[in-house]
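Why should sequence recovery work at all? Because a backbone constrains its sequence more than one might expect. Tight turns favour small or flexible residues, buried strands favour hydrophobic ones, and helices have their own preferences. The token representation captures these environments compactly. In the example below, the structure is given first.
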């Protein structure tokens, strides 16, 4: 019977082989499922059926073609190694692969495109489908990385929720406050017609084009995300509350780490790209500090994204370390010896008798 790591590695290998086959098909001239639409602006509805005339594109760039096929081969190699081995030799490459796939999927745009598509706006489903595949592959390789690093003892810690250290609480509260104060609150003011840091003509045009569904998603989504982030520092983030059907049961780590990690990667990459674009525009003379000053709230939103992503990422790392399973070992002189994998502390350093003596 396959171990957990081998099952996850096999799923990651299937993704790498399948997605690599698609990229090879595109590199060899096939265009089904590929899009030539500009991803930086919404396409015209008439161009969506043909992928902005994707069939007329004779050859792809090196990055879109050969390089993408080679990278898929490297993903398959990581998955093959994970079928036989565990430890840092697998965990680190799988972690890098997961981060790269998540960033390339650019989930920050997905957070806006999917609600817009549900509201009836023109959507390039070829591009969205491709990025959803990349996001799914990133999650698969993240699970491989976690399984490769985790010892195979299979005994969860029975001590219940663990106390949350102060630094982790600080990062969690920062990750919860930034979207509420830096995004939801200003957008509520803008929807109400208050031109806070936004030119009046730009605000009026945005209010005309904004549908009610997108307005709700823009304002309520970040606030809800901030509320859920608090679970990383509270008991209900480790153990289901009493009012749920699973009262008292441990919260699966993947249920917390997967979405929080994806959102942290999306926000950080989105913020970095926004800051880079502003810096490039300033350096190229396409904008000035005076223009950025007139729209300081819009420019500041990029910094909010970046700070939010960094804070959430640090909170996710702290939660992963906090909830990492400890493996029971045979005691030397009574009591159960617990070892925290990844701590580097010898097994005999944390026996029950030692804990009571402290």
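From this structural description, the recovered sequence reads:
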């Amino acid at each position: 019977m396959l171990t957990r790591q081998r099952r996850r590695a096999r799923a990651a290998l299937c993704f790498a082989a399948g997605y690599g086959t698609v990229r090879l098909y595109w590199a060899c001239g096939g265009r089904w499922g590929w899009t030539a639409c500009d991803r930086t602006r919404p396409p015209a509805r008439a161009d969506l059926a043909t992928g902005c005339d994707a069939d007329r594109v004779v050859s792809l760039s090196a990055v879109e073609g050969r390089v993408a096929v080679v990278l898929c081969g490297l993903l398959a190699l990581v998955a093959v190694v994970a079928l036989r081995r565990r430890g840092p030799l697998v965990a680190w490459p799988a972690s890098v692969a997961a981060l790269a796939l998540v960033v390339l999927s650019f989930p920050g745009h997905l957070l806006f495109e999917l609600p817009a598509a549900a509201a009836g706006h023109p959507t390039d489903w070829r591009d969205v489908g491709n990025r959803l595949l990349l996001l799914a592959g990133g999650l698969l390789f993240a699970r491989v990385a976690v399984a490769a690093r985790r010892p195979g003892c299979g005994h969860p810690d029975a001590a219940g929720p663990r106390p949350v250290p102060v630094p982790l609480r600080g990062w969690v509260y920062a990750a919860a406050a930034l979207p509420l104060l830096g995004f939801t609150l200003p957008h509520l003011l803008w929807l109400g017609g208050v031109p806070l840091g936004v030119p009046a003509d730009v605000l009026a045009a945005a209010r005309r084009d904004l549908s009610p569904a997108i307005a709700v998603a823009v304002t309520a989504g970040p606030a809800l995300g901030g509320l859920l982030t608090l679970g990383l520092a509270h008991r209900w983030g480790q153990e289901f509350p009493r009012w749920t059907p699973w009262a008292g049961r441990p919260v699966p780590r993947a249920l917390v780490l997967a979405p929080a990690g994806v959102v942290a990667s999306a926000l950080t990459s989105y913020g970095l790209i926004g800051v880079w674009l502003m810096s490039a525009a300033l350096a190229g003379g396409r904008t000035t500090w005076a223009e950025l000053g007139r729209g300081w709230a819009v420019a500041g939103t990029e910094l909010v994204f970046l700070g939010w992503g960094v804070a959430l990422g640090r909170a996710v790392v702290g939660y992963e370390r906090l909830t990492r399973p400890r493996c029971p070992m045979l005691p030397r002189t009574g009591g159960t010896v617990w070892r925290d994998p990844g701590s580097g502390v010898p097994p005999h350093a944390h026996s029950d008798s030692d804990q009571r003596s402290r």
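A few observations help interpret the result. The radius of gyration is 24 Å.
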